[in-house]
Each structure stands twice: as structure tokens, then as C-alpha cells.
Amino acid sequence: MAYFKDEAELREIIGMLYDRVKIDPAIAPRIRDGKIIVQFRYTDPVGIVTINAAAPPTQPNAFYDVLWGENERIKPDVAMSMKADVAHQFWHGKVNLMAALTRRQIVAKGPIPKILKLLPAVEPVYAIYPQMLREIGRVDLIIA
Q1: Which whole-number Å values give the CA distances from 35 to 10, 31, 53, 80, 82, in the listed order?
Q2: Which of 45, 70, 76, 84 could form a disulfide with 7 if both were Cys (CB 3.0 to 4.6 A apart)?
Q3: Model pTM score
Q4: pLDDT (tens digit, 9 = 90+) per residue, 29-80?
């Protein structure tokens, strides 16, 4: 069974997480300082989101922009494709990025070392995500 019933639910929940992180003063500056554009291409359900930490943010209170949907004007440095369920498990801290890349659960195009450098910056998100799910009443999505 998929964690997200459709693209709208994926965008609502993962989008809420990304919106929290992009304004978090302990996490977001470290991502911004990576000066990278990362695009996540999700399947089952489909969703595309781009993290643009290479340009000054245009979104209020953000350290970088989070953009949903196709955007041909922004070329990602790294594109990562995966099932939405893998992303959900990743944000719980249940997916080892290197193992997922090796098993092709995540397919990356671009310089993988740039992504690996961001891992320490995003580790605090592993605690934020389940807490956020509790706050919005979606304990059914929490992975123990």
C-alpha cells in the first residue's frame, strides 16, 4: 500500500515538510550554503519538486526556494528519481542513501558527492518529519 493516495496528498505532506525546512534557521542555511539545485522526481504518485539553493530566495522567510512542478528555466545540478514511498521512508531516517543508490531505489543524475555533502545538514529533518505528521493528525504515516 502506498503512503500517499495521490499527487495532492504527496504535495501537501512532503511540501509542508520542505516549507518548514526552508525557513529553519538551524537547517536551511546549511542547505543554502551548498549552492546546489536538486530536483526530486517522485512516482507512485507522481510529483516533481526542485530545491533551488543556488540562487537568492524569492519565497518569504526562506533561505532557498522550493518549487513544485516542471520548471524548464531551472536546470538541476542533481536529479533524483524515486518512488514517493522511498522519500517518505528517507525522511523518517529509514533509508540509507548510498544503499538506495546502489539498489537503484533512488536513481541520481549528476554529481552524487554534492548530495552526500548535504546529508549532515538534513539529518535533523528525520526528527522533524514524524513530529510534523503527529501535529497534522497523520500518525498513520509514521514509521516506527
Answers
A1: 26, 7, 5, 17, 23
A2: 45
A3: 0.93
A4: 999 999 999 999 999 999 999 999 999 999 999 999 999 999 889 999 999 9
Instruction: Tell me, yes or no, whether 143 lies in a domain.
Output: no
The boundaries of the domain holding residue 105 are 7-135
Q: Which residues touch 51 (CB under 8 Å, ≥6 apart)?
A: 18, 22, 31, 36, 37, 38, 39, 40, 64, 65, 66
Amino acid in the structure at residue 16: M
Grid cell locating 2: 502506498
Q: Using CA atoms, how far apart are residues 22 and 7, in angstroms rounded to an integer? A: 21
For residue 72, the surrounding DSSP H or E stretch is: none
Residue 1: its pLDDT value, please?
A: 66
Q: What is the CA radius of gyration of the chain?
A: 14
Domain membership of residue 97 (yes or no) is yes
